[in-house]
Amino acid sequence: MTSPPHFNSFAEFYPYYLGEHSNPTCRRLHFIGTSLVIALLAYTVASASWGVLIALPFAGYGFAWVGHFFFEKNRPATFKHPLYSLIGDFAMYRDMLRGKVAF
Fold first, then answer.
1. Which residues 6+ apart lie within 8 Å of 17 measured at CB?
2. How far is CA 25 from CA 5, 46, 48, 57, 69, in A?
3. For the whole model, what pTM was predicted?
4. Per-residue pLDDT tens for 55-92?
5. 22, 27, 62, 87: least surrounded by Cβ within 10 Å?
């Protein structure tokens, strides 16, 4: 088995991250999950219902992992690059909103 690629910066990682999200359904599922995470965070802050935070990983990772395992047919980058993957998810979300990454 080959070792995962090494990245010295997020700028190096992001093109790899986008390549791991070439399937449109996978990207859409990521977008849904990230939207839910943002909504849950906003609700938590507005209502001070801190117990809602437990739902964040299920909302974010649940949709993303379905996209990877069933549509993209690859292993999520978060398993090898957790911090860069989290940043990548929000960067891809931003880029989808801006029209730089297709829905």
1. 77, 84, 85, 88, 91, 92
2. 25, 31, 34, 20, 11
3. 0.91
4. 999 999 999 999 999 999 999 989 899 999 999 999 99
5. 22
